[in-house]
Design brief:
Number of helices: 4
Structural class: alpha+beta
Radius of gyration: 33 Å
Number of domains: 2
Distance between the termini: 132 Å
Number of strands: 11
Shape: rod-shaped
Helix content: 25-40%
């Protein structure tokens, strides 16, 4: 009799432990399911984010937006926040619409042909200048130049300073940002070759000054000079044949 009672009690104990184990497993499964469904914020590209665009600008312009999705659908490394630190980083390559934005897509220097940094609030304008008109090969990315404009169609022909302090951000295919090419050569190393091959000078200007430069490109003959420290230019001075030799 005693053995039978012990056997029954043992069976009941085993059954009880089994029930507890099943309940614990079910609770854990429910917790995992809830965790998988818990929404997390990630950024998704709404439109094309061009290479070189800062993360902050991409958000401000609506090119990418925060979206909540189930945790199990979040890709590894997905960009969850854009703050004062990573907001200054730029898209290393184009990010197409519909892509989950991964944090590693942003860095300090974009790659490829778009690796040129235009200062905030300015625009880039390129002007073709022959060697004598750009101080030979001495104008390089980072130089500051004065741009003169001659307009021979006037009577008499005149020359004036068009822009007195202009930042050069590119010469030929060499930009202010040193990016390695496919052969591992940096732009700085290839500067001499690029400068010799072309005289395309790219400058950064505020939009209103850029409009003046574009008009000068279309109507006049431009000449550039390297700008020294503390150079003071007389923007009102006009030189023509009548005062060329006047002090």
């Amino acid at each position: 009799m005693g053995r039978r009672v012990m056997a029954v009690l043992a069976a009941m104990l085993v059954g009880f432990v089994g029930v507890i184990a099943v309940m614990l497993y079910a609770k854990g499964a429910d917790s995992r399911a809830v965790a998988d469904q818990r929404p997390q914020t990630v950024y998704i590209a709404q439109e094309l984010v061009p290479s070189g665009t800062t993360a902050a600008d991409a958000v401000a312009k609506g090119l990418m937006a925060p979206t909540k999705i189930a945790a199990k659908g979040v890709p590894v490394g997905a960009l969850a926040t854009v703050d004062a630190v990573n907001g200054k980083l730029v898209a290393l390559t184009d990010i197409t619409a519909g892509e989950f934005v991964v944090a590693s897509r942003f860095g300090k220097t974009p790659t490829g042909q778009k690796a040129i940094q235009v200062p905030d609030g300015q625009v880039a304008v390129s002007v073709m200048l022959p060697d004598p008109s750009r101080v030979g090969t001495f104008v390089t990315p980072g130089s500051r130049i004065v741009i003169f404009d001659s307009y021979p169609q006037n009577a008499p022909a005149q020359t004036r300073i068009l822009l007195d302090d202009v930042l050069v951000i590119g010469v030929g295919q060499t930009s202010l940002t040193p990016v390695a090419n496919a052969n591992g050569q940096t732009q700085a190393e290839g500067k001499a070759q690029a400068s010799a091959a072309t005289a395309l000078v790219t400058v950064a200007l505020p939009p209103d000054a850029a409009a003046r430069l574009v008009h000068g490109i279309q109507t006049g003959i431009l000449y550039a000079a390297l700008r020294g420290t503390d150079t003071k230019a007389n923007l009102g001075q006009t030189i023509s044949g009548s005062n060329l030799f006047t002090k």
